[in-house]
Amino acid sequence: MNDKQSLYEQRRVRIEKTIALEAVDRIPTAFMGMAFAPRYMGMSIADFCEVPENRTEVTLAAMDKLGADVWDGINKLPCGKIVPQLTAAWLSHVATPGRELPEDTLWQVQEKEVMKPEDYDVILDKGWPAFLEGYYPRVIDVDELLEMKTWVRDNVEHVVQRCRDHAYVPIAFGGTATPFEYLCGGRSMGRFFIDLYRNKDKVREVMDHMLPYMISEGINTAALSGIPAIWVGGWRSASSLLAPKIWNEFVFPYFLELVNALADKGIISVLHLDQDWTRDLERFKELPAKMCLLNTDGMTDLRKAKEILGDHMAIMGDVPAALLYAGNPDDIFTYVRELIRDVGPTGLILCAGCDAPINAKPENMEAMAAASREYGSVSMQEKNSC
User: Fold this and answer.
1) Which of 142, 146, 197, 295 is deepest in the core (most CB within 10 A)?
2) What distance in Å separates the CA atoms of residue 150 and residue 80, rounded to the nearest whole number?
C-alpha cells in the first residue's frame, strides 16, 4: 500500500468512526464548495458546467491548493454536469452560465409553476417514471439529461478512483429526497403550499405513490458508486417554513420511511438540510441511530442538535456561507473553535454550511481548514479551555 492509499484508509476510518459516534484522533474536515472551486482556480463557471471532467479535476485541484493535508474528504462526490443534476432534483429549469447567463456567473434555478394541477392525476394514472418522461422536456433538453446520466454511469468508478489518488474520501454520492421536494420544485413553492391546504388528499395520495421510487433511486444510486451513503435532501420542507401540522403530515413520515429503507440496505443518509430545522430536532431521534449524518447550512441550531441528538446522530457542518464571504480569518478561527468546543469532539465533521459560496474569500477557506487542524486534535479540550 502506497502513502496515498494508506492516508486514504486512515481518513476513511476516521470519517466512519465519526458517523458511528466513536472517538477519533481528530475531527475530520470535509470540503464543500462546488462553485468556489472553479472561481478559486481561475476556471469560468461556464467551463465548469459544460465539461463533466472539469467538475472532478478542479475540485481536487482546489482542495490540494487549500492544503492537501487538511481535508479528510469531500461532502459529495464531484461527478457529472451540475446543471442537469440540479434540474432533475428541483424539476425546474436551471439557467446555465455561458448560455442564458454570463460565463462567470452562478447557475440559477428559475422558480416557476411548470407542473400543473392536472399533473397529479397523470402521476396517479401513468406512474412517476412515465410522468417524468413527459415532464422533463418542459425544463431541460432531454438529450443533455440522458448524456449526463450516461456519463455518470460510465465514469463514476473513475471519479471515485481520482479521489482515492488524492487521498480524499467521498462521503456520499448522488441523492434522493422526499416527494415534497420534487412536487414543490415543479409546482413552485407558492402554488404547492396552497395545494397542501386546498388539495391535501390528492397531494397525499400522489406522495404515497411516489415514495417507493424515491427509495429505489437512493438504493440504486448507492449501488452504482459503491459508496454506502447518499444525500437525502431537504430545503423547502424545513421546519421554519411549515406549520407543525403540515410538517408532521407531509414531511416527516416520508423522511422516516425513506431513511429507514436506506438503513435496511446499510446506506447512510446524509441529511442535507437547508434552512432552519431546529423546531423538530426531537423527531430525528426516531430515525435509525448512527445511520444518519445531520448536514446543515448554518441556520439550524447545532448546539441544540448536539443536546438532543448527541448520542444518536453525527453532525456535519456548519461554517456559514455568509461568514466565509463577509468574515475574516479571525472570525473563522473563532467560529470553528467554538463549534468544536460546543458540538465536538465526538460525532462532528467540520464542513462549510451547505456549500462554500462562489465568492468565499480564499483566506477564509484556508482559515477553516487550518482551524480544524489547530482545534480538532485530541488535545482540543485543553486548548479550548485555556
Assistant:
1) 295
2) 9
| Residue 115 CA from chain centroid, whole number | 25
**Alpha helices for the chain (secondary structure H):** 3-19, 36-41, 45-50, 52-67, 82-90, 119-126, 128-135, 142-165, 179-187, 189-198, 200-225, 244-250, 252-264, 302-309, 321-326, 329-343, 362-375, 380-385
Residues 295, 94, 181: CA angle, nearest 5 degrees = 45
Rg (CA), the chain: 20
| Least confident residue range of 138-152, 249-263, 368-382 | 368-382
* Cβ(183)–Cβ(206) below 8 Å: yes
Q: Is the dihedral of CA 12, 48, 232, 222 positive or negative?
A: negative
Q: Which residue has the higher pLDDT, 376 or 182?
A: 182
Residue 117: other Cβ atoms inside 10 A: 14
The pLDDT tens digits of the residues spanning 202-243 come to 999 999 999 999 999 999 999 999 999 999 999 999 999 999
Picking from 303, 10, 77, the residue whose alpha carbon sits closest to that of residue 294 is 303
The cell for 253 is 413520515
Helix (H, G, I), strand (E, B) or coil at 146: helix
Does this model's pTM top 0.90? My answer is yes
Confidence band, pLDDT 50/70/90 cuts, at residue 377:
confident
DSSP 212-231: HHHHHHHHHHHHHH--SEEE
* Mean pLDDT calculated for residue range 180-186: 98
Cα separation, 276 vs 297, whole angstroms: 8
- Out of 89-93, 112-116, 374-378, least confident range: 374-378
